[in-house]
Amino acid sequence: MQITIITVGKLKEKYLKQGIAEYTKRLGAYCSIQEIEVPDEKAPEQLSDAEMQQVKKKEGERILAKIGPDVHVYALAIEGKQRTSEQFATELDRLATYGKSKIAFVIGGSLGLAPEVMQRANDTISFSKMTFPHQLMKMILCEQIYRAYRINRNEPYHK
Known about the structure:
This protein is of the alpha/beta class. It is 43% helix and 18% strand. It starts with a strand and ends in a 7-residue tail after the last helix. It is found in: Cytoplasm. This is Ribosomal RNA large subunit methyltransferase H.
């Protein structure tokens, strides 16, 4: 399975880079994983609604340019569908069983995802009703993908 994680903005924090690198290394035994960072749109701190939509639209165009037509897309969004780790594992296994060998997870920038990206998504996923920095979500996502593979192979993993 080819998994792509598409994020807006460049990851700068060393501790997050290290955590993501660790899970990416572990995932190498189970799947091919690729990370794509698209540039975030520079914008002032205070934005009107129209300016926010314009920023999300530009970031969304960059995201969509990285997604092929045969890719199953999950959009990470606070209003997305919540799952248990076991449900997520079952879902990934089912996708692989039915020939969906390319999966992309999309994490938006600080303003969220453009409506066009949400429309392209085959499904949404939320890890919590709480708000997290999008850079941290990338590491949490990597851990959950790793956990899913361990669950699907009945391999022990810390609960």
